[in-house]
Amino acid sequence: MSTMRVMEIKERGAPLALSTRPAPQPGDRELLLKVECCGICHGDALVMEGHFPGLRYPRIPGHEVVGIIERLGSGVHGFQVGQRVGVGWHGGHCGECDACRVGEFGSCERGHTTGLTMDGGYAEYMIARPEATVHIPEELSSVEAAPLLCAGRTTFGALSSSKARGGDLVAIHGLGGLGHLAVQYAVKLGLRVAVVSRGEAKRQQAMALGAHHYIDAKAEDPGKALHELGGARVILGTAPSGKELSRLVGGLGRGGELIVVTGAGDPLVIPPFLLLGGGKSIRGWVGGTLKETLDFSIHAKVVPMVEVFPLERAAEAFEKMMSAAVRFRAVLTMNHKEVCP
Ligand SMILES: NC(=O)c1ccc[n+]([C@@H]2O[C@H](COP(=O)([O-])OP(=O)(O)OC[C@H]3O[C@@H](n4cnc5c(N)ncnc54)[C@H](OP(=O)(O)O)[C@@H]3O)[C@@H](O)[C@H]2O)c1
Ligand SMILES: [Zn+2]
After folding, report:
1. Distance between CA atoms of 164 and 27, rounded to whole angstroms?
2. In terms of CB atoms within 10 Å, which of 85, 103, 144, 245 comes out highest?
């Protein structure tokens, strides 16, 4: 193993391009993964757009990575060569700063974001940090596990930390990579689920995932429709549009919360009076616990629906995701044939 194929972004605004690089060597406190597969998250668009602190080019995107440990640094404990592991958005932290001491690893100033401040999983090999790496249980295939590492973790974390309890109405805005898992988690958590999407084509898909209600935001006012269903305890915003998400806020019920997981760059525009009655709130959510997400997904039988593409078709898969045409998560698989012995 001396070289590897990667799909990388050479500079801000550039497309994904196939390239060959020397395979990386793990440092003392690092793991070398032979990547099996990597999900394509909408968050990977940040690498093209260039808006992320610490982002440098060329950069290999990808933060839903499942791989086999190929080599270990001498300071790594708790892992062995040959084990199957996963890495998500959070790529590692120092463990010593004030943020780490209170468990806010994502705020660690010396921390890493996989595929943004360090190279990610659109590659045959990748360096990972042990504190950000999780064992993948044998019940999950690698392709099923990958989307759980960001899309799953984020939506399970947001919903399980929310105020919603059995029977409450929860609205899921956007039926993409995050949205289709959010629907399944919400159903398995015993919630009444309304999917807010665009067009009639997604009605069947939403219902097949277990949703109880479908609201076509192109054909009706989604806030009014949620209000008529009794008002939502939680609105989970996954669609990348602040403008569209704003249209749902009138559908919050008493004590309801809008949980923003979308990274949309355009503003939420909300008449303030909509938040007054019943102590409504808005908050953001990033991340979640990997092990809890994997365990819940296995026990509740939450399974990502994926479209698999070989590494070299990453640009096509990425475009399909950006145009909301993937059902529902694109996952890249590596074939290691071209790697030198
Ligand atoms: N907070 C976190 O920790 C975290 C983690 C991962 C991702 N994210 C962010 O979450 C968002 C969703 O990620 P994803 O991977 O699920 O994306 P995705 O797979 O592209 O799905 C987004 C869905 O939103 C809907 N949508 C797309 N464009 C829209 C528009 N202009 N107006 C209204 N709806 C639109 C589409 O569903 P319909 O056709 O059904 O409307 C689309 O399938 C992104 O902004 C991403 O950066 C945040
Ligand atoms: Zn992501």
Report:
1. 44
2. 245
